[in-house]
Amino acid sequence: MSIEIKMEGQVAIVTLNEGENRLNLDFLQKFMDALDHIEKQTDANVLVVRGAHEKIFSNGIDLEWLMPIMQKNDSYCAGM
User: Fold this and answer.
1) What is the pLDDT of residues 15-30, one digit of tens each?
2) pLDDT score at 78
3) Which of 63, 80, 37 is closest to 14 using CA atoms?
4) pLDDT < 50: residue spans in the chain
5) For the whole prediction, is pTM greater than 0.85?
């Protein structure tokens, strides 16, 4: 499972292949690393982001990751 980068001419195709592509710190860091790589190492002028699975692009925010963070910061939770 990974985030894959494929170049087709000046088009960078980023394929999200991390299971359900749940948005958590680890996943977002891998995604940002991929974008940094594209910016610094390629001559891409178009970016396509796609999911590797037919039925899902992303499951959204990873609640298992988010809930403990929210519980630790009551003032943040109260403002939501």
Assistant:
1) 999 888 889 999 999 9
2) 63
3) 37
4) none
5) no
CA neighbor of 38 nearest in space, from 15, 68, 60, 7: 7
Distance CA 72, CA 74 (A): 6
| Cβ-defined contacts of 27-35 (< 8 Å, 24+) | 27/62, 30/2, 30/3, 31/3, 33/3, 34/3, 34/5
H/E stretch holding 48 reads strand 46-51
Q: Choose which CATH entry (3.30.470.20, 3.90.226.10, 3.40.50.720, 1.20.120.910) describes domain 2-78.
A: 3.90.226.10
